[in-house]
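Treating backbone geometry as a discrete language has practical consequences that deserve illustration. In the encoding step, the backbone of a single protein was reduced to a row of integers, each denoting a local shape. The amino acid sequence and the backbone structure tokens for this protein are reproduced below.
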Amino acid sequence: MVIALTQVVHQVTTTLLITGNKTDRMSKRLFVVLVLFIFLDGCIPEYAKLNNSGYKKATAQQFDAALNDFNSSIKLNNQYWLSYANRGGCYYMQENYEKALEDFNTSMSLRKNNYVALDGRALCKMELKDTAGAIADIKQTIQ
């Protein structure tokens, strides 16, 4: 479906961009860019949009609203490692280190070499007084 659609877009843009005068072609290029922008926005899965929304809310310290977005993202795709890592970050900021640790572990199980979650897990272990575990995680990030 996506391949066929991109072929159509290519054919239309090729046809549009070679006809008309210079001003016409520039207007057509702007139109094509706009259409592609709309098309690409529609290609982003809903779970990724929710994750991005949650991340924006978390950076604005709206942690409860961010958690709602991350939870919704995970309901739509429970294999999306980034939503777990971001939700873990929210839990960490709320000082809920056990839940944060659980999410960082899940994120790491879904994606190898996941240094975002590994760093978060090390911070949680420090807060939970697991110094040896935190040091082991930090060593793993620098290898």
About this structure: The helical segments are 2-17, 22-43, 46-59, 63-76, 81-93, 97-110, 115-127, 131-142. The chain is about 85% helix and 0% strand. The chain has two domains: 2-43, 46-142.
